[in-house]
Amino acid sequence: MLTKAYGAHAADQPIVAMDIERREPGPHDVAIDIAFCGVCHSDLHTVRSEWAGTLYPCVPGHEIVGRVRAVGPDVTKFKVGDTVGVGCMVDSCQHCAPCAEGLEQYCETGFAGTYNSPTPDAPGHTLGGYAQSITVDDKFVLKISHPQDQLAAVAPLLCAGITTYSPLRHWNVGPGKKVGIVGIGGLGHMGVKLAHAMGAHVVAFTTSESKRQDALDLGADEVVVSRNRDEMKAHTGSFDFILNTVAASHNLDAFTALLKRDGTLCLVGVPEHPHPTPNIAALIFKRRAIAGSLIGGIAETQEMLDFCAEKGIVADIEMIAADEIDAAYERMQKSDVKYRFVIDNATMG
Ligand code: NAP
Ligand code: ZN
């Protein structure tokens, strides 16, 4: 089936309208009319070929919410009209040890990303949520139970939400823990909301003085402007866990110095250029760790969506039309996002 989409034909080309092909639902497939799609910094990295290996045409988008239009004969979990979500993955091998544990993001043969991964479908690589519809295996479709009027603000949970929820859970963030969130953009603002909802003492780190009050409103107990040395120094050696969402290369030592003995700095940002090598002595002398984390598995994504529905958590968004995506990318590159752009996919018609 032909569907309207927005994407780029090359790294140096703008985002433009295009028609793409979606497969008719197979036995286990769910065909979804997309209502909204969030704009992740990974979309920008991919479209502009900041990471190696972008395939064109590139249709990004992995924060998808919409309604089920049709289901294959073997689908039992979903029916026509259901409100559903799709995140960063649309397939995995389903038989390696990580898949068996519900950690499809660490699939040993590599999961299929919602965009830019090999697929038998035309044009040979997956095309994402900047489109009016998508067809996805039911194992990778999520149930949405938030109220209908919140759907646009639910979309960012599918990547920004799970990418911050998963490490916060893995490192046991909760009451009695002091937790830092670095970079108050799409991921970071969700990290602040989620760590606060989990009961931790949350400190937001931002390079933008203008986000100080917002970070408090999002749920931070304290805000540190990370360019201010004295403000940073006041927190030396005090954190159990710091989640770093920054999308650009920067000095990590400024943050490892803030960890307690045995504390962990977890990186989720994937900058185009590497970070400067961290100071190893700062790790060794306090048994500190630098770690990484990749999105989250399907079961944990459902758990996160249900947790957010129960606690009334959604993203803070700016809604845009499809022809405003390039302008949104420009603002994202200047850290000027409050705090996630979401495309109204109805504007693609
Ligand atoms: P975003 O909305 O652009 O937010 C990034 C934030 O980082 C900015 O708002 C800014 O916050 C801060 N920042 C930007 N440039 C900086 C610099 N030069 N120095 C210090 N801070 C800077 O991006 P996002 O969508 O949250 O994504 C963040 C990163 O995570 C991207 O690299 C993305 O590809 C990656 N990602 C990873 C995963 C995963 O599974 N690990 C999943 C999704 C995304 P302040 O203004 O507060 O400083
Ligand atoms: Zn993303």
Secondary structure class reads alpha/beta
Shape: globular
Instruction: Output the CATH homologous superfamily of the largest domain.
Output: Medium-chain alcohol dehydrogenases, catalytic domain
CATH topology of the largest domain: Quinone Oxidoreductase, Chain A, domain 1
Helix content: 10-25%
Number of strands: 17
Query: What would CATH call the class of the largest domain?
Result: Alpha Beta
Hetero compounds: NADP nicotinamide-adenine-dinucleotide phosphate, zinc ion
Order of helices and strands: EEEHEEEHEEEHHEHEHEHEHEHEHEHE
In round numbers, the mean pLDDT is 98
The number of helical segments is: 11
Q: Tell me the CATH architecture of the largest domain.
A: Alpha-Beta Complex
Relative strand content: 25-35%
| Alpha-carbon Rg, integer | 20 Å
The biggest beta sheet reads: 7 strands, mixed
Measured distance between first and last alpha carbons:
15 Å
> Which ranges are low-confidence, i.e. pLDDT below 50, for 5 or more consecutive residues?
none
Number of domains: 2
Essential attributes:
alpha/beta, binds NADP nicotinamide-adenine-dinucleotide phosphate, binds zinc ion, 6-stranded parallel sheet, 17 strands, 23% helix, Rossmann fold, Quinone Oxidoreductase, Chain A, domain 1, 2 domains
